[in-house]
Each structure stands twice: as C-alpha cells, then as structure tokens.
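User: Show me an example of a complex going from sequences to structure tokens.

Assistant: Sure. Here are the input components:
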Amino acid sequence: MDAHIKKVYVPMTETGFYILLCLKEPNHGYGIVQKVKEMTAGDIILSPGTMYGSLSKMERDGLIYFIREEEKRKIYQITDLGKDVLSLELKRIERLYQNIKEMT
Amino acid sequence: MMGDNKTTFRVFTIMQHEEEAEYLGRMHRDGWKFTGVTFPGFYHFVKSVSEDVVYQLDYNQDGLAHKSEYIQMFTDCDWEYLQDFFGYSYFRKPKALMQGNEEIFCDAESRLEMMKRVRRGRIVPLLIVFFCCLIPQFFLNTVGSGGSRPVSVMLLGFYFMYLICFAAFYFQLFRYERNVRKDDKGVLIKYIGLFLFIVFLSAVVTGTFAVSFRGRVQRDKYMLREYENGFSIGAEYLDGTVTQQQKLHKGDVIEGSFVLTEGNLQIEISRENEAPVFSKYVENPENFQLEIEKDGNYIITCKGEKAEGSFHFEVQ
C-alpha cells in the first residue's frame, strides 16, 4: 500500500468506512445509502454528493472496481487493496474500542 | 399571467455557492419557486406556495460526464435535479422529505473535495491566465521598452481583481480544510506561506509600477530670470505652471514675446483674486502687448504642456 493511499484513507471517514464495508458484496451507491440507514437505525443518512464523490475517488484510487451498470446505477465491489485498507481501519477501531473498555 | 413570474439579477462568485443556495431557499420560503438561472446571473422564479425547501449546488465535472448515473444518484435520494450552470448542478429537496437537516454533502471531507474540484475546474485556468499572460504582460508594459502607460494601469487593475478573487477562494478553501484537519499545523503553515507569497508578489508588482511611473514622468526643467522690469523663462521641459507676481499701475504695458519649439503654453494674467484680464494659448512665434487699466498686484501664470522654448515678459 503506497503512502498516498495511507495518508488519504487511514484513518477513514465514516462514509468511506461504510462504503467499503457494504461493498464486500456488489452494490450501487443508493443501495449503500439504504443499507447504512438500516444498519444504523436511521442515524446515518449518506448524502448523494458525498456518495458520488467518494465512489469515483475510491474507484480512481483502486479501492473499489466497477462491475456493471443497472438502470443507470453503477455497481461496484471492493478490491484487494480496498480490503487491506478496510482491515487497517478495523484494527484501528478495535484498538479504540479495547482502550475505551480498559479505561472504564 | 402578469405577476406570477419574477426575475432577479444576482452575481454570486465562485466561492459563494452556499450563499446562492441559501438565497434560492429564502425565495422559496417567500413563495417564489426557482425555475432556472440564465447568463450572466438572471434568476427566474414562479409564484408558488411558501415551502421549506433546501437548495444545493454541486460542482462535479466527472458527474456531468456521466450525467444519467450522476442524476440518478440524487433522484434516488429524493433530490430533484434542476439544471447545470457553468459546471454547477442545482438540486433541491423539500424539508418535509428529510429526517432532520440534510445537504448533498454529509461530511466536511466531501465539502472540501468539492472545493478542490472547483479549484481544478475554475481556479487553475484563471491561475494559468494570471501567471502566463497577465503578469508577463504587466512587466512588459512597465519595465519593458515600448510599454504603454494606460495598458499597464489597466493590467494593474486586473491584477487586483484576480488577486481578490484568488484570495477569497483560498480563504474559503482554508476554512474547509481547517474543518477537516483541525489541529494540523501543516495546513496553517501552507496558507500562511501562500498569504506571504501574495503579499510579496503584490509588493513587487506595485513597486515595479511605481518605479516605472516615476521614471516615465519627466521633471520640469527651466531657468527663471527676473529683471527689474520683467522676467524670462528658458524652458527645456515645462509641464507644470510658473507664476510671477508684479506690481503694476494704470497705463503700464506688458510686452510678451515667445518662441515655442515644443508643446503648448498658456498665458494668464489676472489682478489678484480676480478673473483673468488676459488668457491666451501661445502661437509660435508670438508677441503681444497688454495695457493695464487698474493699479494692483498682478499674477502672471505660464501653464506649460510639455513646452520647450523661451518666454519673455517686460513692463513698459
């Protein structure tokens, strides 16, 4: 993983995190929005401008790849690089969680 | 029907997309629904019921290149696509369809990303024009040979126009970037550096302008000789005025004789605090006589316009 990717994606935004998490299975932008809404009981509503920008940026950086288009919706899936980034982020969050638990 | 449509003229600059969106929302709350914007800044509205609607602008060239997918994403999220205008896309969504406050961006990072897209699409071309055309032209016209004064004044004006535009944009970008990386000293240092560079460039530009301005304006160069009954001026270059006072009596005659080799010269003779009794553009060569009708202190003014020659006054 090169320095640029590390600098931009570690630590990750909540939006970025949920996109990568959801794209373990093929999905399109709006599908991710709905899934995140469901997963967070309506707390997190991802916005279309953010979503579109993040997806094109992640595709450019090789974290996700374009599979096909369905009814004007682009379907993406995570790449190996994306998985590496996601696991780094998961480790970071796990450590945060561990530390919080130890402190309280 | 008359009165059902309304058009306003507004100019929102590159960094005022938030103000613009707020303006459209305010109009909608006042019962004017936005129908479109046309060049150069006419906003069209139609009378409608007052409603709380959030307006948003995005700048995304990649989105415009893949328009149908781009718009689909917004439509799926209940954002109505309105139009494109100079690279900006306009969207709106009624508050009634929202849970809390919604915007088309949900985090500071993506707002900053948009500003960076604006920089790439709008500011960089301006910067290229600025550094590759405006600045070289400016120096050619000030320190270069054969430069033109009016052109360099105009270019200086452009310089400050561009500068204000860049400064406003980069200040905005700084605010967005601070929002993302609150305690990153690097961000602050970067923008302070940019600010100092702008100050430095402005100093060089205005300094160059001032120096070239002074170099171009020739100093007046003349010799004034006073005699008992008159005076004479031998001028190599006179672009200002020379005044002399003379006590004169009724019946005195002033004799003037002039040889003008360059430029123009205007002569005025007046009694102190009174309108001129004599005023004339000098022909070449010229002699005149003027008989004084009232006693008093008289002021003789020679007003040169790049004048060269010798001018002589004598009282008889």
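The lines above are the inputs; the final block is the predicted structure for all two components together. The CA atoms of residues 173 and 279 of chain B lie 62 Å apart.
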